[in-house]
Design a protein that fits this description.
With 568 residues, the chain is an alpha/beta fold. Helix content is 42%, strand content 13%. The protein has five domains: 83 residues, DNA polymerase, domain 1 (Orthogonal Bundle), CATH 1.10.150; 62 residues, Orthogonal Bundle (DNA polymerase, domain 1), CATH 1.10.150; 89 residues, Beta Polymerase, domain 2, CATH 3.30.460.10; 77 residues, DNA polymerase, thumb domain (Beta Polymerase, domain 3, 2-Layer Sandwich); 224 residues, Alpha-Beta Barrel (TIM Barrel), CATH 3.20.20.140. The termini are far apart.
């Protein structure tokens, strides 16, 4: 169902841009956070957020109040948020791009603009080449070097526009569920990179069989989430949702469903390796079946697992299909038994309202964790929000809530910042009083990040390195960490390394987590939740761990708390 109203994605982008410009101006952090949360809520909404605003119903959604609803109506009426248009007039468009470069946050970007008069990307490049950035407080030769490297990388390899798994997974599941409920549906499944749980994707693939393909196609293009029908045929169609996601549906012959699901799940490299091995054994593998060349006999099946069995392999979980040794392991019986979401017994990194950006109280977070079936939960609020007696007051609240929860272990923790000099921003005696300490990089990513992380691991109070490279997908490349040295230090000190489950982090990345697992490092999958709903982030972290070939025995928080307790 096409619409002249702006798509959710377009509305969300205006609020995200407004948040960026407010950051550049040094506005109140709470306003910035509110706009970013609202933008995320808009992207997650299946129906048209513009239509809801016109009906006065948008403010009923969490994170969207009357003021934000009014701004959505402004977009519908004039095409732009008034406050955004005013700021765009006075802030040069390239300046907000400065914030996307390593080591340049909003405050630094504003300094470069206002104190050096730099207003374009080309001007920034020249300022770095002419060594003018180092004249600003806090910036040096290393900053200039990083800026020039990042700008060169953008020219040589422009980033492909890919959405986050955390956005696509619930969306494709909703489509699959809707199609499965249609009378014309037989078998329906997600496919492509989202089924392999890659951290980003270009489009969302759905494979289905049906006795009436045209009826199923009609149901697909008529879904409420559809903003635009990009293509439509008798057995396939492409639509774009209100939040800008692109869905491809292919309705396939039922007798070849298993073959086609395997093929369209990919990856390309996995499928090429599979075909090459087949050729060596006299087999031709296509999406419609496996042909024995000598006899011409074709094997097709509705069962994907039967495809691998026919070819002489154990079933390869979709997350492993990246041509990274999985076929050899599948032929020799060496595939790992991968971790499952149900294996997790607790969460060791999350935030409450004691952090300014937290939205759930200690009790709300604990009750939600207990309802998930966890045996323990550790509250790890940011250290800089726990000063001036707040650390002790929070500890009292955690203890009081813990007493009401019976046998459930509610633990007192903290997330400390690793400063630019490698020290931690909380005294050792305060850290020692905590059950669990997470140490993380949050700034100065270009200043000896490997040495800083290793120094934090040397502190006997530190139990976990949070989001080790500090990357933000689609926004910020990770710090230049020597991951091999960091893993070796983690093994030496017994410090755990985190797979952070936030959709825009998933840090450690899969390859690094696999290296850590093979080296014997302690690994933790954490939600880093800032709200009750975000406790579910761990599904993404578990998927990342599966892509890293990790089993439950390699993940620390699959164990009871008595086996997780810190080394100190």
């Amino acid at each position: 169902m096409a619409s002249t109203l702006p798509r959710n994605q377009d509305v969300a982008e205006q609020f995200e841009l407004l948040a960026d410009l407010l950051e550049l101006e040094g506005s109140d952090a709470f306003r910035v956070i509110a706009y970013r949360r609202a933008a995320q809520r808009m992207r997650e909404t299946a129906g048209s957020i513009a239509q809801l605003a016109l009906e006065g119903k948008a403010k009923e959604l969490s994170g969207i109040g009357k003021t934000i609803e009014e701004k959505i109506v402004q977009i519908v009426s004039t095409g732009r948020i008034d406050a955004l248009a005013q700021r765009e007039e006075r802030i040069p468009p390239d300046v907000r791009l400065f914030m996307r470069l390593p080591g340049l946050g909003p405050k630094t970007a504003a300094k470069i603009w206002l104190q050096l008069g730099v207003t374009t990307i080309e001007g920034l490049r020249q300022a770095a080449e002419q060594e003018r950035l180092r004249t600003l407080p806090g910036l040096g030769a290393k900053t200039e070097e990083n800026v020039l490297r990042a700008l060169a990388a953008q020219v040589e390899a422009p980033a492909e526009e890919r959405a986050l798994l955390g956005q696509g997974l619930p969306a494709v599941r909703a489509v699959v569920e809707a199609l499965r409920g249609h009378p014309a549906a037989d078998l329906v499944s997600e496919a492509g990179s989202v089924r392999r749980r890659r951290e980003t994707f270009r489009d969302l693939d759905v494979i289905a069989t049906s006795p009436d393909p045209e009826a199923l196609i009609a149901a697909f293009v008529g879904l409420e989430l559809v903003s635009e029908v990009a293509a439509r045929g008798g057995t396939k169609a492409t639509v774009v949702s209100h939040d800008g996601l692109r869905f491809d549906l292919r309705v396939v012959p039922p007798e070849s469903y298993g073959n086609l699901l395997q093929h369209f799940t990919g990856s390309k490299d996995h499928n090429v390796a599979l075909r090459e091995d087949g050729v060596r054994r006299g087999l031709s593998i296509s999406e419609y079946g496996v042909t024995t060349l000598e006899t011409g006999e074709v094997f097709s099946t509705r069962d994907e697992a039967a495809v691998y069995e026919f070819l002489g392999y154990a079933f390869v979980p979709p997350e492993l299909r990246e041509n990274a040794g999985e076929l050899e392991a599948a032929r020799t019986g060496a595939l790992p038994e991968l971790i499952e979401l149900s294996d997790l017994r607790g969460d060791l990194h999350l935030h409450s309202t004691w952090s300014a950006d937290g939205r759930g109280t200690v009790e709300e977070m604990a009750e939600a964790a207990k309802a998930r079936g966890y045996a323990y939960l550790c509250i790890t609020d940011h250290s800089h929000y726990l000063r001036d007696g707040r650390l002790e007051a929070q500890a009292e609240e955690i203890a009081a809530v813990g007493e009401r929860l019976g046998r459930f272990h509610l633990l007192r923790g903290v997330e400390v910042n690793i400063r630019a000099d490698g020290s931690l921003d909380m005294a050792d005696e305060d850290l020692a009083a905590c059950d669990w300490v997470v140490a993380s990089l949050h700034s100065a990513f270009d200043r000896s990040p490997t040495e800083r992380i290793m120094a934090a691991m040397e502190n006997p109070n530190v139990d976990l390195i949070g989001h080790p490279t500090a990357r933000k997908l689609n926004r910020r490349a990770g710090a230049d960490i020597d991951i091999e040295r960091a893993i070796a230090k983690a093994v030496e000190t017994g410090t755990a390394l985190e797979i952070n489950s936030q959709a825009d982090r998933l840090d450690l990345r899969d390859a690094h987590a696999r290296n850590a697992g093979e080296a014997g490092a302690r690994i933790v999958i954490s939600s880093d939740a800032h709200s009750v709903g975000a406790l579910g982030n761990v599904e993404l972290g578990v998927a990342q761990a599966r892509r890293a070939w990790l089993g439950a025995d390699q993940v620390l928080n699959t164990k009871p708390w008595r086996d997780v307790k810190p080394r100190r």
